[in-house]
Specification:
This protein is mainly alpha-helical. It has 2 domains: about 90 residues, RNA polymerase sigma factor, region 2, helix turn helix motif (Rna Polymerase Sigma Factor, Chain: A); about 80 residues, Arc Repressor Mutant, subunit A (Orthogonal Bundle). About 80% of the residues lie in helices and about 0% in strands. It is built from 9 helices and no strands. It is elongated, with a radius of gyration of 20 Å. It starts with a helix and ends with a helix.
Length: about 170
């Protein structure tokens, strides 16, 4: 039985503002959220990720437009919280645009090219391939997914991670 099937009877009432249904939904989802967080978070962050995820669900359940999207939405929140907590622990902000702009400002075009080549060479083959196909061959996400033989969500995840690794390499 899927997460959606297990929680379907509670979703619509919770989405419509039934407080008891929301509380039941959060209690019922907690084991799934925890199991997922164990796979995606540092061990020390699991409890925080679970708590933050359930708070976000409670606050934003009314914005869920399609009940069928609940599972993906829920697990996306867990993943996002795990990444946020991990960045906090390691002092990373892989999306610091000011830092990237500063880096570009102090490097010549040739230095940027050499650093990009070094960054690409530092990536694993599957991350390098994702960046090259998307950013240099300009394939769409769907085309990239077909070429990599991955689902669209898995393709987006791989591409996002590859870009994060490139940014970390360049800013290190």
């Amino acid at each position: 039985m899927t997460v959606l099937e297990r929680h379907a009877p509670l979703l619509e009432p919770a989405r419509l503002g039934d407080r008891a249904a929301l509380e039941s939904l959060l209690r019922a989802c907690q084991p799934d959220v925890r199991r997922y967080a164990y796979r995606h978070c540092l061990m020390s962050d699991v409890d925080d990720a679970v708590q933050e995820t359930l708070l976000i669900v409670a606050r934003r359940i009314q914005s869920l437009r399609a009940i069928a999207a609940f599972s993906g939405w829920l697990f996306q929140i867990v993943r996002r919280e795990c990444r946020r907590l991990e960045r906090r622990v390691f002092g990373l902000d892989s999306f610091d645009e000011e830092k990237m702009e500063g880096w570009l400002a102090v490097h010549s075009d040739d230095a940027v090219r050499l650093d990009l080549i070094g960054g690409l060479e530092s990536l694993s083959m599957h991350h390098r391939e994702a960046i090259l196909l998307r950013d240099f061959e300009e394939l769409t996400i769907r085309e990239l997914a077909e070429r990599l033989r991955l689902s669209i969500p898995a393709t987006k995840s791989r591409l996002r991670r590859a870009r994060e690794l490139m940014r970390e390499y360049l800013l290190a």
